Amino acid sequence: MSIDKSLKRKSTGVRNRSVLKRSERILALQESDRFKEGQSPFGLPKVRVVKIVLKKAKKEKTEDEGAAKDKKK
Questions:
Q1: Which of 1, 15, 22, 38 is deepest in the core (most CB within 10 A)?
Q2: Residues 35, 26: contact at Cβ < 8 Å?
Q3: DSSP state for residue 6 in the 8-state scheme
Q4: How many C-beta neighbours within 10 Å does residue 6 have?
Q5: pLDDT band at residue 68, thresholds of 50, 70 and 90?
Q6: Regarding predicted confidence, which is higher, 7 or 67?
Q7: Rounded to two decimals, what is the model's pTM?
Q8: What domain of life is recorded for the organism (predicted)?
């Protein structure tokens, strides 16, 4: 029996993965000149996965908000 669409999690593919596919590892190694043409794709060295952290931008105070807060004090 399958799960109903409404019960499936929407964020299943959004998380950072800690493991790369072989093709992704080869691309990363080629960028750092650690993989040579003709080299076997088996027994590849480890590749560090860089996690991207996005910070939320702070709201800048407008002149109206700043003036309103000064009046309250």
A1: 22
A2: yes
A3: G
A4: 5
A5: low
A6: 7
A7: 0.52
A8: Bacteria
